[in-house]
């Protein structure tokens, strides 16, 4: 008998899992770790074309041994003794792992770019779009060559959304999936757009608006792409097998039990517990229910520390200073890291403000989500990290957090943008928010003396506090910009208008600026935060 094949870290093979329709499928996966529990071998697998939040421990029965691929040997792989720190040795070479990570990142970028049809955090229906890049000229032979968009929009689009121009070909609808919210989701290619009518005075229900060239735009030059190394952006060079694996089994937070999606650096001794208990008001972590009950007799918090700066109905927002409330801020970061993969955790919370959204009942103010923000941002970032906790997702709270961040920017008299890179769910939520906010303004514009309504990119930016680059990329994403008879025109088709109206009817939660009591501080004048 041939000796049984030993599966080691770095091996790849198809692994059985259930998709969203509870059907069996065998996607390719990489073995990240192997352990033995009660004489049974367990394998921690990462599904190659799926988000890391679906990684899991599986038994031998779920592995397809016939298609096993061994890791490629790298001549320069360091020996086990040569490895620094407590990182487990992996037979896969470091450079190969880095190359694979790059390939995975490209794949996830491609997924995010094409995942416009079934997005979870998005209520605005996908606009019917053509495959060619925006701006699209109407189907008439142009007399003059079509110039580029104002403010070099191509550069800004590349900066905000990965510039994947053509939709990839799908083997079948079942083959390609995007993971949103921890579940695999079918990815359906967006339907091809209808040909636009050539005449701008057409009879179908299409609204036309003139997009004017801002006087200062021409001197702005090409905006540089935003840096990808923001204050909280994860530095992937230290990414190792340990941080690629979920380490907390389950978290009990108030009446909710949460299954973490990603690694979070809680103390090592807590990672072997079946449940990690958190006080839902101060977010202190405890190892047992008994410890939690004892803590609750002493903890007199019933809301996040800091100032309540907004209240309407049962929704409140609290502003927490990362220097004054260090323990709470660090505990919040540890909890958030369980559900955020793109951001890293710094124990130095001093440079940050945290805005925590809560829902009130007779027992207190329960955390729903939060966003953090640098006290001083050189890049116009108005959000560093943003998260709606899983029990509250898909209920409109994510958009409420985004809307609140822009309301703060309006009070500060600034335009803002979220720190890049956004996660897949973050990108979907922001795209949806930007689309609805900009369409709301465009549809409110009234014709002037029978002429088409007129607006500039800067005006949209000033009204919404959305940064100019994000306005341009959203107009392109919605495919609204056309070039006709020497000028830019925004074309609102019947589909776009109807889709927007449907989406707004579903959007019940809104921020009321009258309920916001917030005075911005000038942090630059403070010697110490």
What does this structure look like?
The chain has 529 residues and is of the alpha+beta class. It has a domain at 11-67: SH3 type barrels, CATH 2.30.30. The protein has helices spanning 94-114, 153-160, 217-220, 289-298, 326-337, 397-412, 424-444, 457-464, 468-477, 494-506, and strands at residues 12-14, 17-18, 24-25, 28-37, 40-47, 56-59, 177-180, 183-186, 207-212, 251-253, 256-258, 276-278, 285-286, 307-312, 315-321, 352-361, 364-374, 381-383, 386-388, 417-418, 454-456, 481-484, 487-492. The strands form seven sheets. Strands 14-15-16-17-19 form a five-stranded antiparallel beta sheet, with helices on both faces. Strands 1-4-5-6 form a four-stranded antiparallel beta sheet, with no helix packed on it. Strands 21-9-23-22 form a four-stranded mixed beta sheet. A hairpin with a 2-residue loop joins strand 7 and strand 8. The model is unreliable at 75-95, 106-203 and 217-230 (pLDDT under 50).
Compile the SSE list and pairings:
Layout: E1 12-14, E2 17-18, E3 24-25, E4 28-37, E5 40-47, E6 56-59, H1 94-114, H2 153-160, E7 177-180, E8 183-186, E9 207-212, H3 217-220, E10 251-253, E11 256-258, E12 276-278, E13 285-286, H4 289-298, E14 307-312, E15 315-321, H5 326-337, E16 352-361, E17 364-374, E18 381-383, E19 386-388, H6 397-412, E20 417-418, H7 424-444, E21 454-456, H8 457-464, H9 468-477, E22 481-484, E23 487-492, H10 494-506
Parallel strand pairs: 9-21, 10-12, 18-20
Antiparallel strand pairs: 1-4, 2-3, 4-5, 5-6, 7-8, 9-23, 10-11, 12-13, 14-15, 15-16, 16-17, 17-19, 22-23
